[in-house]
Design brief:
Layout (H helix, E strand, L loop, with lengths): L13 E3 L40 H12 L8 E3 H22 L4 H14 L1 H7 L5 H8 L4 H10 L9 E7 L6 E7 L8 H4 L4 H17 L5 H18 L3 H4 L7 E4 H7 L5 H7 L7 E4 L2 H13 L2 H16 L5 H16 L7 H12 L1 H12 L2 H24 L5 H13 L1 E5 L17 H17 L21 E3 L4 E5 L14 H17 L21 H19 L2 E3 L2 E2 L6 H21 L13 H12 L2 E3 L1 H10 L5 H9 L3 H6 L20
Parallel strand pairs: 4-6, 7-9
Antiparallel strand pairs: 1-8, 2-12, 3-4, 5-6, 8-9, 10-11
Helix pairs in contact: 2-3, 2-16, 2-17, 3-16, 5-14, 6-12, 8-9, 8-15, 9-13, 9-14, 16-17, 18-19, 18-21, 18-23, 21-23, 21-24, 23-26
The structure holds zinc ion (ZN).
Zinc ion binds next to helix 23.
Length: 681
């Protein structure tokens, strides 16, 4: 199990707004924020007023900032969200280093101990590849396909990989958590990387990385093995579902008993796989990408045992590499950082150490973080904002022309039952059973994986705990937990330029207001329609509602299909549809809520700008950012969120008041005739 990458076997469960993550590899860095956002919340020096708003509103609002800002050499992108992330990492660093210097509590000793073990470069260098020895010996000892299946099962609790992803999530039809099982096994961001000619350079770099890894562990025939491993993964890629299909929540909900799974995909001994995973008690699973699981099982049966063992050995070393000596770290960065996302430099060790604590002891350090950095007053202000956004959404539902009266009743019921969580969870995770040794990095990570897997697996068959969060409080992001009908706004995102208690309200509505609206509307979009007010998988729309919604949303998909996100590559309008609807809906609801907040009075004019102008600028500023082309390519292949530029342009050009606010007229590049504007909400 590769640490710090979530098992993405069930992408549909958690829809975030994705403010920071821009590719499958997470690479972070730093740039100061502070008072960078002007007197009332928008940095007016960022604008490029030479660009007409209707030709490129992203440049109009952010063009000067884009011109003066360089992507730091250890980052694949820079953005408003990334800057907030960097600020937060600096704050976490202080807390973590204080714990490393003097642990005041047992939890502090864990935080400080794990960080010390990571920062002990001399110790890590001295150990070099030695920590791998017994695990690699276990892989070499495998003598049959059946043994290999058991070996893959055991990777739930070690650094290795399985061609079948497993994860524990809320069951889509029962009020308990279930084990989900789906496609896996790929070391590149998406199946396209294996199958499309456009990614040939990445495929070559991947093959070179695999060969290099075998050389590092002094394995025989590295080039030959790399070719075989890549050929095996390419077969898996052919069998795998495309990203756009994986987000169809009804298609990925296929409950089966273990016996049924055995009949469906007979090429693998599933009982052996589950037993080896520590899941002997599991009698049923939810299969996500059905045909992919079936075909991948057959591919495993058809592949020579030596190739399977080589594949596992490579992934095991890849999973462990961040915790090994420099030659492993550098070799991995050569691929993950340089080749995949075009990032020239590795992040300094302390940043990787902070990310490690953030990842493995997230709520422990998160509890300290919110105590020191999250102002209690922010929670009250956010609760009020969210309530205003929900009221505005209810009004939009009531007037939606495509929704029948009966569906509107159910939508309003779902909205009223949607739970809102702000800042941090109401109860914290207990990490006390995790043993941390300040002198044993590899062992700490190995134990942490066992600890985390046991924590997740213990939930199977038990009622879903809605108080638990899928993000830590310091995360600069937000999400809609669809199957729990809740929306979550961690403390990390409640910072400027997204949320600033001292800013002009128009700016807050344009930034965090649109984020709140985005998460709310997910409950009522092409996937939200399939989950009812209780969080159960049930299509609550009539056939006619669906027909009218699809007609309108298809227009939006076509608009995005036409955008060239990076030279030579267009956005996938279908893959990004749900997120694009949420961006547009979120912005519209935020505008309504802002207007309602004025209580019938006109908005003040500030610096010559109307309230609506400031709201749109606040929105565009919250999405300002730029990314390296390779990172954008990775995002566009696998991520349902559109590149930042088109989150701004794509949403605003469908909003009538944007045209009035910025005098956008026919003939300008992104002008849409009123009848061509998409009116889902
Ligand atoms: Zn979203």
């Amino acid at each position: 199990m590769r640490v710090s990458t979530r098992t993405a076997s069930f992408a549909a469960v958690l829809v975030s707004i994705s403010l920071v993550l821009i590719s499958a590899t997470r690479i972070w860095g730093k740039e100061p924020t502070g008072k960078a956002f002007g007197a009332w919340g928008v940095d007016l020096t960022s604008r490029d007023l030479r660009t007409p708003a209707g030709d490129d509103f992203f440049a109009y609002a952010n063009g000067t900032w884009l011109a003066r800002t360089e992507i730091p050499s250890d980052q694949s992108s820079t953005s408003a969200g990334r800057d907030v992330f960097n600020l937060t990492q600096d704050q976490l660093r202080e807390l973590i280093e204080a714990s490393a210097a003097k642990a005041a509590t047992p939890t502090g000793a864990q935080i400080g101990g794990l960080y010390k073990s990571f920062m002990d470069e001399a110790g890590v260098e001295a150990a070099d590849a030695k920590p791998l020895a017994s695990d690699l010996a276990a892989i070499h000892a495998v003598s049959s396909q059946q043994d290999f299946v058991r070996l893959m099962g055991r990777t739930a609790t070690n650094f290795g990989s399985s061609v079948f992803g497993v994860g524990v999530y809320a069951d889509a039809k029962k009020p308990v958590s279930s084990l989900y099982l789906g496609q896996g096994g790929l070391g590149m961001p998406d199946r396209d990387y294996y199958l499309s000619e456009g990614f040939k350079d990445k495929k070559d770099a991947y093959q070179a990385y695999i060969a290099r890894t075998f050389s590092l562990i002094e394995d025989s025939a590295p080039d030959e093995k790399a070719r075989a491993v890549l050929a095996f993964e390419t077969e898996i890629a052919k069998a795998s579902w495309a990203a756009a299909d994986r987000r169809q929540i009804d298609k990925v909900y296929n409950p089966m008993t273990v016996e049924e799974l055995q009949k469906y995909a007979p090429s693998v001994d599933w009982r052996a796989f589950l037993d080896a995973s520590g899941l002997s008690a599991v009698q049923a699973v939810v299969v996500t990408e059905t045909t992919a699981v079936q075909k991948i099982a057959q591919i495993v049966a058809d592949t020579p045992l030596d190739t399977l063992k080589a594949w596992e050995a490579f992934h095991f070393v890849d999973g462990a590499s961040p915790y090994l000596s420099k030659r492993f770290v550098d070799s991995q960065f050569e691929f993950d950082g340089k080749a995949l996302s075009g990032t020239p430099e590795q992040r300094p060790r302390w940043k990787r150490g902070v990310s490690l604590i953030d990842d493995r002891l997230g709520e422990a350090v998160g509890q300290e973080y919110v105590a020191k950095y999250f102002p209690p007053a922010s929670k009250g202000k956010m609760d009020a904002l969210v309530a205003n956004l929900k009221t505005a959404m209810a009004a939009r539902i009531r007037i939606a022309s495509w929704m029948s009266a009966q569906t509107k009743d159910q939508a309003l019921e779902k909205l009223s039952r949607m739970e809102v969580m702000v800042g941090y969870p109401s109860k914290w995770r207990d990490y006390s059973k995790l043993k941390i040794d300040p002198a044993d990095l590899y062992g700490n990570l190995a134990r942490s994986i066992v600890f985390e897997t046991a924590y997740q697996f213990a939930k199977i068959g038990k009622p879903v705990d809605k108080a638990e969060w899928s993000m830590t409080p310091q995360t600069v992001d937000a999400y809609n937990g669809g199957l729990e009908n809740k929306i979550v706004f961690p403390a990390g995102i409640l910072q400027p330029p997204f949320f600033n208690p001292d800013a002009d309200p128009a700016v807050n509505y344009g930034a965090i207001g649109a984020v709140i609206g985005h998460e709310i509307t997910h409950g009522f979009d092409d996937q939200g329609r399939k989950i009812d007010a209780t969080g159960a998988l049930r299509d609550w729309w009539t056939a006619d509602d669906a027909k009218r919604f699809v007609a309108e949303s298809t227009k939006l998909a076509s608009q995005y299909d036409a955008y060239e996100g990076v030279p030579g590559a267009h956005i996938n309008g279908n893959l990004t549809l749900g997120e694009n609807i949420a961006d547009l809906g979120g912005l519209l609801v935020a505008i309504d809520a802002y207007h309602a907040s004025l209580g019938g009075k006109p908005a003040p004019i500030i610096d010559g700008l109307t309230g609506d102008q400031r709201l749109f600028l606040g929105y565009a500023q919250s999405w300002r950012g730029k990314a390296r082309d390779d990172a954008l390519r990775a995002q566009m292949a696998s991520d349902p969120h559109s590149p930042r530029k088109f989150r701004v342009i794509g949403a605003t050009r469908n909003v009538d008041s944007w045209y009035q606010s910025f005098d956008v007229t026919a003939g300008q590049k992104y002008f849409l005739k009123p009848e061509d504007r998409v009116r889902v909400w």
